[in-house]
């Protein structure tokens, strides 16, 4: 009998638990869901949305989601949409919440800016549809008054004005001029009025490109400079678009010789864009992809960014050899001279091969010599060296390859401010490079760790 009270308490607790689990908790969850839904501006998710109609003072823009998930514009013209702009608008609408209901449609709408909405958005999700009229900013920053069509409620929302004010046809139209990603490009042809430069991606793995110049010379390319050029093309956007019609025809008559024509080859085919500057006074720049397609107004700086001299695109490292290809590096300066030999990945002095060098100092020094780039070109072709101090250089570096042949050479002459005149094996002519390389040549003692001097930085 003494256990009956314990059993009874257990039954009561179990019943209470069941009541809470099956009755109270679902009711609470339903109440929370209802409260959350009451705060939502739209009754459906962004993934369910299949169409948008955006009305501004400039007219109506209709947007439709394709089966592949991309957005296209269907009116007032048929073209690709700017997916980022469309998705940004959708995120704002779907995540937007209602702070409170302030009135209904029977109230005067002018105080809320809803008698003449700045924007009206109709959202379609399958068979569902909702229309939101966007009015004035609310009493707090980043709030807007909205009239919701389905219930006629005037709502104060947390929508941000920047997401809805000042939108136009151009906002939602695709502005990228080329359809290209850098890792898809095999070659690039830059055609100028008097010359042409052709670049090839020689890498097997296109995600790790290795660019070379194939015309007008065969040479290594400046990888950073080529990547910068490709970024400009990948991110090339129109400021405005002139569709076929009288205005396009008038502008096209003024387009004669392009400042630069860029042809990009990918496995999917070639894309070509021509850049013109018909009026040098205004600086207006025009891009053309096809003779009968739209014209694109672009920022004039894009033409300057794509107008490249051969020197700009060449590998400007003067020595002409890579670290891994060097077997011997001869160093000759006015106060020090020695020869470094690469023995199975470690540097030793030719005259003291048994002594262990400070490899971190040797590696850093060799890397600096190998990667020293020309900052400016002084003379394009070979010329007298004496005026630049290159007949008897301040420092000279000679690299011998693993095959015993000359692999690279670099000579440094007179100082000119913080630059020094230089010649190199990779490029013909005379150049200027940073002069701090002259103070970064370690002595034998520093390489051996015998000196108390601070190692070159």
**Helix-strand makeup class:** alpha+beta
> How big a fraction of the residues is strand?
25-35%
What helical percentage do the residues reach?
10-25%
- Going across the biggest sheet, name each strand in turn: 4-3-2-1-6-7-8-9-5
Query: What oligomeric state best describes the polypeptide chains here?
Result: single chain
Unreliable stretches covering 5 or more consecutive residues: 24-38
What spatial form do the alpha-carbon principal axes imply? extended
Mean pLDDT: 90
Span between termini:
91 Å
Give the topology.
Elements: H1 4-39, E1 51-56, E2 59-65, E3 71-75, E4 79-80, H2 83-95, E5 98-104, E6 119-125, E7 128-137, E8 144-148, E9 153-157, H3 169-172, E10 187-191, E11 196-201, E12 211-215, E13 219-220, H4 223-234, E14 240-242, H5 246-252, E15 260-266, E16 269-279, E17 284-288, E18 295-298, H6 301-306, H7 310-313, E19 326-333, E20 337-343, E21 346-349, H8 359-370, E22 376-379, E23 395-401, E24 406-416, E25 419-424, E26 430-434, H9 444-448
In short:
With 457 residues, the protein is α+β, with helices and mostly antiparallel strands. It contains nine helices and 26 strands. It has three domains: 46-172, Dna Ligase, domain 1 (2-Layer Sandwich), CATH 3.30.1490; 182-313, no CATH class; 323-448, no CATH class.
